[in-house]
Amino acid sequence: MSSDAIFVGDEKEHRVKVADFYMCKYAVTVKEYLQFAQETTTHYPEWMEEGSEYNVKTGGNDYYKKLGDALTDDNHPVVGVSWDDAVAYCKWRSSKTGKKFRLPTEWEWEYAAAGKEKREYPWPTEKGEPTSKLLNYNSNVGTTTPVGSYPDGATPEGLYDMAGNVLEWTDSWYDEKTRSSRVLRGGGWGSSAGRCRSAYRGDGTPGHRFNRVGFRLVFVP
């Protein structure tokens, strides 16, 4: 994908030149991420981290436990990983494949979600407003769902779950002046419809982990 287009992140228009890139079809799954964590014995998700109160086996906090089997199912998007963890995964995957993988910038992410038409939501405009048939949002399921579970909500270009399921880390700073947090895009399983719009910007500090946040990669040719 490439574009010289106007984007509307944070409800403000920005003209941005986006160079060629390929966006991965799905968010990184539990199976994919744990292969990295187990091979390197580092960057375990918070719900697996030894000594963490959020560890689903030994911790007392049920922040992740309430996701049940969805938390560990191979085909669900991984959650409980920070921006730092996601960047480490990108470097590992790049070294394993000899190809350059990284997190998308927020403008790459928005272009992939909104397209040249600047769609309010990632799916074709004629499909209308968010419904439980188009995305996993607003706790209509109460957990993550397997990647690709909402084909009706896919982008015309064939990207799945760009709205709902998990918010996704991007490589961009939320505020270039303070550089204290990274941009999150896409809305998660507990997000309102408004927070699943293509233009919505959330944020999180690079070391923080959430039960509604995962990530997706881009491949740079």
Note down, in words, how this protein is organized.
By secondary structure, this protein is of the alpha+beta class. The chain has a single domain, classed as paralog of FGE (formylglycine-generating enzyme) (Alpha-Beta Complex), CATH 3.90.1580.10. The chain has helices at residues 30-40, 83-97, 106-114, and strands at 3-7, 14-18, 22-23, 100-102, 167-173, 182-185, 202-204, 213-215, 218-220. The strands form 3 sheets. A 4-stranded mixed beta sheet has the order 7-6-5-8. The model is unreliable at 2-9 (pLDDT under 50).
Throw out a few tags for this protein.
single chain; 221 residues; alpha+beta; paralog of FGE (formylglycine-generating enzyme); 4-stranded mixed sheet; 3-stranded antiparallel sheet; 9 strands; globular; disordered N terminus
State the strand order across the main sheet: 7-6-5-8
According to CATH, what is the class?
Answer: Alpha Beta
Structural class: alpha+beta
Binned strand content: 15-25%
CATH topology: paralog of FGE (formylglycine-generating enzyme)
| Approximate shape | globular
Largest sheet, in brief, is:
4 strands, mixed
CATH homologous group name? paralog of FGE (formylglycine-generating enzyme)
Query: How many alpha or pi helices?
Result: 3
Helix content: 10-25%
What is the helix/strand order?
EEEHHEHEEEEE
Distance, first to last CA: 11 Å
The tally of beta strands, per DSSP, is 9
* Nearest-integer average pLDDT: 92
